[in-house]
Design brief:
The structure is a homodimer of 147-residue chains. By secondary structure, the first copy, chain A, is an alpha+beta fold. Helix content of chain A is 43%, strand content 21%. In chain A, α1 packs across α2, α2 crosses α3 and α3 crosses α4. The two termini of chain A are 25 Å apart. β5 of chain A pairs antiparallel with β5 of chain B, so a sheet runs across the interface. Chain B binds a DNA duplex (30 and 30 nucleotides) through α4.
Chain lengths: 147, 147
DNA sequence: ACTTAAGTAAGAAATATTCCGGATAATCGT
DNA sequence: ACGATTATCCGGAATATTTCTTACTTAAGT
């Protein structure tokens, strides 16, 4: 899908966190889960479920699409990745450092924006419920679509 | 769907803006469009396309779901409403004043948060493209789902 | 080695959204 | 005001995405 953009050490650290969280929840650390997580964690392309499936199939040709969907959902529950809603479909982000997204409403491309510009928990949000993430999405037309 | 929460004068003003924008783009001001816009503009429930459809059908039983989808899309293009992505489906908001949303990842309910806490356009976002909106979404579990 | 969660396959279902061909009605020119 | 033009609507069908079902196989954790 794309070349590795996360440093080897960072990836190792994330994989360790993944295994630890699985164990704490009593979920088995299967090769499929590890591979699916690694794919999202080592990419900055905000892949869709379909893209993850295609990438994982390179190494594990017998993996099923259903497994990818189920695993992405469980990884999200374990707070190992976040879901980014685009005009077209769901995309996933394994980078949990706080940052914002620019989402093109035309081509659905997702761009990362560092650093974040938001204040996090505050009295008003606390009144609503327990905040897990703050998604800051700048929606508009990206440079590529403008030309 | 829900009782009118926007003042009569405000709604009249928004309807006038709606007609004016339609005319400027050469779009016909049909009863269906007016009713669909009015439904979203007079609600603070962030209705889904389906919810808008059900509400509009009370007054216009023959309206089709397709018309609702097409109309919501065109209203979005005209900057008359914004789209809020939830874990389950798209929801719409006729309130264009800058504000943030708390979205429950469990029940997909959308809560308004005033005032906004975000800085808007900045050098980083400008590098990506032309920003039309900034969606600030606080994702988490709402009070109701916690209990 | 045993137990059992998890994965596979193939199909079907559920859901959301969009497309199509023909009918209707809003706007425009006269 | 009237008919022509053409956007818009309608109902139903199609598509796309995601999830579920069943029965069987694999392999993780003890």
């Amino acid at each position: 899908m794309d070349k590795m953009v996360t440093s080897r050490e960072e990836l190792t650290r994330r994989l360790a966190a993944f295994e630890e969280k699985c164990r704490r929840r009593g979920l088995r650390v299967t090769n499929q889960r590890r591979e699916i997580f690694k794919t999202v964690a080592s990419s900055r392309q905000h892949p869709s479920a379909e893209a993850v499936f295609l990438a994982v199939r390179q190494k594990m040709p017998r993996v099923s699409l259903d497994t990818v969907y189920r695993t992405l959902a469980s990884l999200e529950k374990m707070d190992l990745l976040i879901r980014v809603g685009t005009p077209e479909k769901e995309r996933f982000d394994g980078d949990l450092r706080p940052h914002a997204h620019f989402i093109c409403t035309n081509c659905a491309e997702v761009y990362d924006i560092f650093p974040p510009e938001v204040s996090y928990e505050n009295p008003t949000t606390l009144a609503c419920g327990k905040v897990k993430y703050v998604h800051v999405q700048f929606k508009g037309i990206c440079k590529r679509c403008q030309s």
